[in-house]
Write a structure and sequence with these properties.
about 900 residues, Immunoglobulin-like, 19-stranded mixed β-sheet, 16 helices, elongated, coiled coil, Carboxypeptidase-like regulatory domain-containing protein, DUF5686, CarboxyPept-like_regulatory, signal
């Protein structure tokens, strides 16, 4: 019976793939003069009836196209980069009409160019005008609605031999269950309804989605990005105001499009090719200086080459990228793959901003200045359309000033309407409940780009696999029901206790809002010379109050409670320590209470993690972590008012603090490499004779306030605000500590930090801090100001604010201090002068760390680092060489291997 059903369903499916749907339309093949097919050529349909809207499609990888059209007369334009555009009339009747096209290579002519300032390439005057008008073109569209068809195809073409051998069984299962196979494309098709409105709102509704492997949507960093923007997908656009710093341009010629449009071909040549820049060709329309089409290539941070092709179509006089194609190829971790992503837009509504008309002429003042130029005062406060009515030709400088003034006025208008002007982009995505259930007939009527033979086979295989699974369910329904009932009796509930969970840890879901989280002691086995071997376990009860559902992508909790405890057994000291914790959080405000007995590093920032200290102690004979005991009760409150621009943290703690020694004097490491002896747990310090302190009580008040010095820009994705790192503002932090009871001091410090881009993959990071003990009548070593030192060859943590060679506690101070950290990341500096090195994703760093305390003698580190030590395999590792200086005198040289990852706490 199962075989008969399988045969019947397979036959019906095959018939549905090949059957005619009864619709009308146009199909054909696009080739060049030599008979080779032209993949992804643009096919633009223009109705001869004025009421008929323009539409279009793209040929597939086999050069074939197919588009559904109502009966009538049309003009069909065929476009392909580097080839002459042709137009053909056609009349659509019943069924599909075949219309093939053969394109000839584009013949270019050199335009007569008047040069008055040396022998500058004509491309520069064209690009100056196009750059000056780039923002103008972005603001032309007030709003639009469009149906967008996207298709992506991803193919793994080779796997490392080791992977194929090691995962042979899994690969066979993946082919059987998920339709994955080397050399077979994985497909994803999406049809969406997209709306846009100025200045920054995109709304997308997925109405159909189909995939040959599973249900997923294709994310794409180029989605809705524009080459009129200064950057696109992290790379500098050839139309960026900074383009001349990154590119050279060459004029290749001009050709005429049907309708008399003149188009100039410009070669885009990066000054240093690599991640963050493009190379290729861009076509610019004469007089309007808009993008006609482009073919540009870049490379991402893992060495994958990406080629971008756009073909623009005039929509109500505005040239829009209606046909887009992205191709990628490369290898990562030995896996070679290739893929493409195509996007076709058909507009149903298109509204042009009335303030931006296309009859504005742009004069290149470096060649021939306009008859009249405007001063800043003549532009300030004036409306754009008012200026245009009086004057038609503007210099590139004046046009930029006018657009900037327009944006300033629009921003003020938005403020007056109480809109959030810090939001630079507002995106939302909604998936229709039927999106993944559309039939083949539905797709045949909606698909803009026909499937290739290989893609049809891939879909057939995927649908067959799904069909077989459904048949198995149908034919074995009774047995499955019996088996499931029987197994349900035997199967343990995920919330049921089992002894194995004591070893592995577990999370029990008690209700929809609450869960019990158990951390096994086997997950936290550590060693230090104070406690010996330790095991640490935790048990926490978490309760999230009812959530306010904004949409399916984001849920805002109305409150979250946490209560639990952590216990730690010290085998060396033969005792238990631990603490309890209770907290409540509402949005960005959190109140927590904790108390107990625990061991802490003198530096509360934990300059060496317990995990790394375990390795250094047991394997390298160096016990860096210095610990003291604290019996405490702590109340902490944190809040982030003013839309997270300000962060406040206040705490009040009562503690009894006790100095500890190594639990035994004759401790030995596992391997005695250099016959070192472990150091005492009492740190050495240059400012005091001894860091010893008696057991004492301390009441500590600690207040920290941080604020952004400027408005941080945000993007909104499905209601969630995300700060933009590239537009972040400097962070100012103030900290005040007050010691009372057996201690008596007042400490105040301030710091400012910032990170900002200085070019492609180039960034400057800095952190400056200074502080002083205003009152130091009684200060014990736990209260000293400690610094982020490092004494091990492996350096981890924050690469900006961590010293590389500074002993952890040598210059801790109870007086005053000043420190400075500067890290410059370079895309091109020394070894990255070589293009191959840049393409591998390596970066070079220069850094300086400075520390002043009364005893530090102007301690300074100057270093060089190579980021991406093992390209494309372990890109987060780096190697560094550092020189030490004190009072401008050279002290020595050190080397570090580092990572930006953090291990342990």
């Amino acid at each position: 019976m199962k075989s008969i059903l399988l045969l019947l369903f397979t036959c019906l499916y095959s018939l549905s793939i090949t059957a005619q749907t009864g619709t009308n339309g146009l199909r054909g093949t696009v080739k060049n003069a030599q008979g080779d097919v032209l993949p992804f050529a643009a096919v633009i349909v223009k109705g001869t009836d004025a009421s008929t809207k323009s539409t279009g499609t793209i040929t597939n990888a086999e050069g074939r196209y197919e588009i559904v059209l109502a009966p009538g007369k049309y003009n069909i334009a065929f476009q392909y980069l580097g080839f002459q555009t042709i137009q053909k009339p056609v009349e659509i009747g019943t069924g599909f009409t075949t219309l093939d096209a053969t394109l000839e290579e584009q013949a270019l002519r050199l335009a007569e160019v008047q040069t008055k300032a040396g022998n500058e390439d004509p491309a520069y005057t064209i690009m100056r005008r196009a750059i000056a008008k780039s923002r103008f073109h972005q603001l032309q569209v007030q709003r639009f609605k469009a149906r967008v068809y996207t298709k992506s195809s991803f193919t793994v073409i080779d796997l490392p031999n080791l992977a194929e051998m090691a995962f042979k069984k899994q690969l066979k299962e993946a082919e059987k269950e998920a339709n994955f196979k080397v050399g077979v494309p994985l497909l994803n098709e999406t049809v969406a309804e997209v709306t846009f409105s100025q200045p920054n709102t995109y709304r997308q509704r997925i109405i159909a989605n189909r995939n040959s492997q599973g249900d997923f949507l294709s994310p794409n960093q180029f989605y809705n990005a524009s080459f009129y923007s200064p950057t696109i997908a992290g790379a500098v656009s050839p139309l960026s105001p900074k383009a001349f710093a990154y590119y050279k341009f060459e004029y290749k010629g001009t050709f005429r499009e049907p309708g008399g449009v003149e188009v100039s071909k410009i070669q885009v040549i990066p000054r240093q090719y690599g991640e963050g820049v493009f190379r290729g060709t861009i076509y610019i329309l004469e007089n309007t200086w808009a993008i006609h089409s482009l073919q540009l290539e870049t490379v991402n941070n893992i060495g994958v080459s990406i080629t971008v092709r756009h073909i623009c179509t005039p929509i109500q006089g505005v040239w829009m990228p209606t046909n887009q194609r992205y191709e990628g190829k490369g290898s990562y971790l030995g896996v070679k793959a290739t893929g493409y992503y195509i996007r076709n837009l058909t507009f149903s509504e298109f509204v042009v901003n009335p303030a931006f008309v296309e009859d504005i002429e742009v004069a290149d003042e470096k060649k021939a200045p306009p008859a009249q130029t405007l001063s800043k005062g003549e532009i300030k406060g004036r409306n754009l359309d008012e200026l245009v009515k009086k004057q038609k030709e503007f210099s590139t400088k004046n046009l930029r000033q006018m657009v900037k003034e327009y944006e300033k006025q629009e921003k003020q208008a938005r403020k007056n309407r109480k809109e959030d002007v810090t939001v630079v982009r507002d995106d939302s995505l909604v998936v229709d409940s039927l999106a993944r259930k559309r039939s083949n007939v539905f797709w045949d009527s909606l698909r803009s780009v026909p499937l290739t033979t290989a893609e049809i086979k891939s879909y057939r295989k995927a649908d067959s696999l799904g069909l077989i699974k459904e048949i198995k369910v149908l034919t074995k329904a009774d047995s499955v029901k019996r088996d499931s009932l029987a197994s349900a009796k035997k199967k343990k509930s995920p919330n049921k206790f089992s002894p194995g969970q004591l070893l592995s840890g577990h999370t029990w879901r008690l209700t929809k809002q609450s869960s019990l989280i158990y951390t096994s002691p086997l997950e936290r086995i550590e060693y230090n010379t104070v406690e010996g071997y330790t095991v640490e376990g935790a048990l926490n009860l978490r309760y999230r109050a009812k959530v306010d559902s904004v949409n399916r992508f984001r849920q805002i909790p109305l409150g979250e409670w946490n209560i639990g405890g952590t216990g730690r057994y010290q085998f060396g000291r033969k005792g238990f320590v631990g603490y309890g914790l209770g907290s409540y959080q509402y949005k960005s405000t959190k109140v927590s209470v904790s108390g107990g007995r625990y061991l802490y590093q003198y530096n509360p920032d934990n300059p060496i993690s317990p995990f790394l200290n375990t390795l250094t102690t047991l394997l390298f004979e160096q016990n860096f972590a210095k610990l003291y005991q604290k019996d405490f009760l702590n109340l902490t409150v944190t809040a982030s008012p003013f839309k997270d621009r300000v962060s406040l943290t206040g705490s009040l703690e009562y503690a009894q603090r006790t100095e500890l020694a190594n639990y035994r004097e004759d401790l030995k490491p596992w391997i005695n490499w250099r016959e070192r002896t472990f150091t005492p747990n009492r740190p050495d310090n240059a400012e005091v004779e001894t860091t010893a302190f008696p057991t004492h009580n301390a009441l500590l008040f600690n207040l920290t306030a941080s604020a952004k010095l400027g408005a941080t820009q945000y993007t909104i994705r499905n209601g969630r605000r995300i700060a933009r790192r590239d537009n972040d503002a400097p962070l100012l932090t103030l900290n005040y500590r007050k010691g009372m009871q057996d201690v008596d001091y007042d400490f105040l410090q301030a710091s400012i930090s910032h990170s900002f881009e200085t070019g492609i993959r180039s960034r400057l990071n800095y952190k400056l801090s200074a502080g002083s003990f205003l009152n130091d009548r009684q200060v014990y070593f736990p209260d000293f100001k400690h610094f982020e030192g490092n004494q091990f060859f492996f350096q981890q943590g924050d690469v900006v604010s961590t010293y590389r060679l500074l002993p952890y506690y040598q210059y801790s101070t109870a007086k005053r201090f000043a420190e400075a950290h500067v890290l410059a990341e370079f895309r091109k500096f020394f070894v990255t002068q070589l293009t191959l090195v840049r393409l591998l994703g390596l970066k070079e760093n220069l850094f300086v760390h400075y520390l002043y305390t009364p005893a530090s003698k102007n301690y300074t580190e100057v270093g060089y680092g190579l980021d991406g030590l093992i390209p494309q395999v372990l890109p987060f590792f780096r190697v560094e060489v550092i020189s030490q200086w004190q009072d401008a005198k050279y002290q020595g040289l050190g080397f570090r291997i580092g990572t930006t990852l953090k291990f342990g706490r």
